[in-house]
Amino acid sequence: MVLYFLKDESRPETPGAEEPLGVHHALAERASKYTKRPNVFRLQTADWRVFLFQAPSAEEMSSWISRINLVAALFSSPPFPAAVSSQRRFIRPILPAAPSRSAPEEQHRSHETCMDQFAAELFEHQRNLPDKRGRARDLDEYRLKKDYLLYEKRRYETYVQLLETWLSAGARDLDGWEAHVGPVDAPPDPPSLTKAHSSPSLAPEAPPAGVRVKRNISERRTVRKIVPKRNKNLL
């Protein structure tokens, strides 16, 4: 399961075929945080390298994302058992590069088991928060493992969803399956903050120029002459 980079005919100065890129245990997603160019998707490999690719259109970008993830879901072998070590430092496990020979139904069950396992590990990990007054190394280890569990949970959720649609489509017609999956949805935009008409303003509005403001009795200032008691009879 490799992705080859061929020479661009429109750019003769570019070199020929480059080093192939393995897509086993990879995840392709829309690069929502990259805004310099349109129709860009990101590909994160098994060793956590990230590559950005630009497609000619949004439809072709969705096609690349769906097909790469489907190939990864169909042929990614189950992960190795976690290594036992006395060190407290978190290390990401090495994923097998050999393609899986299991049927799509078995792949779906295997990915579903991994999805539930990572969801349970993430829940347990978030329950045991580190002490904020602890060492910076412990906080970094906690964040590193949390990012890993979140990514693996999202990756297996994508695999399970694609295999469900692949099996329901008969696991034959790739174009029909892609039409059933549909385009990759863009991340929702954050809601804009609008001022409600019924909400009072936090800062008092200044009165228009030339308008006299009538104050309440409690706000009026009165000036009184202070008279000492010994001189009170002289007035």
Question: What do these coordinates show?
Answer:
The chain is mainly α and 235 residues long. The chain has one domain (2-79, 88-181). The protein has four helices and five strands. Strands 3-4-5 form a three-stranded antiparallel β-sheet, covered by helices on one side. Strand 4 and strand 5 form a beta hairpin. The longest helix has 33 residues, at 136-168. The protein starts with a strand and ends in a 54-residue tail after the last helix.
Question: Main traits of this protein?
Answer:
235 residues, mainly alpha
* Main pleated-sheet profile: 3 strands, antiparallel
- Supply the number of helical segments: 4
- How many distinct beta strands? 5
Strand order of the largest sheet: 3-4-5
**What is the H/E order?**
EEEEEHHHH
Shape: globular
Structural class, from secondary structure content?
mainly alpha
Classify the beta-strand content into a percent band: 5-15%
First-last Cα distance: 107 Å
- Number of spatially distinct domains: 1
- Radius of gyration equals 32 Å
Mean pLDDT: 76
Organism: Dromaius novaehollandiae
Region (Disordered): 180-209
Protein name: PH and SEC7 domain-containing protein 4-like
Domain PH: 1-73
